[in-house]
Design goal:
Elements: H1 2-25, E1 31-43, H2 45-48, E2 55-57, E3 60-62, E4 65-74, E5 80-81, E6 85-86, E7 89-92, E8 98-107, E9 113-117, E10 121-126, E11 128-129, E12 134-142, E13 155-156, E14 160-165, H3 182-208, H4 214-240
Helix pairs in contact: 1-3, 3-4
Amino acid sequence: MRTFFKYSNILALLGIIAGFIIYFLAEKKKELTLYTNSFISLVDKNSLSGSGIKVSFDSVPVTNLYKVNFSLINTGDVAVTKSDLIDKIKIKFDPKATLLKYEIKSYPITIKIEDENSKNEIEINPDLLNPSDRIDFITYYTLNKEGCLPQTDSRIIDGKIIIKNLVNEIETDRKFKIINTPVGETLFWYMVIWNIAIFIMITWAIFRDKENPKWAKITGYIIFGGGNVLTMIYIYGKEFL
């Protein structure tokens, strides 16, 4: 056991060094994600066919009426400002759709948003989106065919905008995230190999010990070795499962 605790100082120092390596070498991610949260058909022309019923929305005749809730979230690690946007953020519906109404709410509410809309498009220009900041949209549009989800082809400098459809989808939040870069992958396998090495050292140190009784060695092995194995399972599972 004394041998193990002697080497533990070295392991603690390596842990501090590894933490600095991860902090300074990990690439910062500039990313926005457009999430479609819900898509509801409020009026279906097929169900009204032959009934003689006519529907209008704010005095505008509609055939099919759709309500779509979606969000724009900063899912990156750095803030996105106006200067990062290339010609604003344009959220588009089907070219033949007619946008009837939309509402915008931001979290936090201090985000200042310039917004405009055309027949089938919403343009926004937020002043600042820090990591995890979000803008929620509630939209109503009509289209003389099956509805479609909002899209965007806007770009940000040195980053990207991702489109995700959460309608009828359950997403599992991965608490442990490895940065998808060569450096990130190297650090991941370094952590796995390092934990395996520590487990081997724990096994060697405990069973080589001649001073403590057998029950003490088994208890120590379960506490130290078991915790180490669970750490490896957690890291591997959160990254790949």
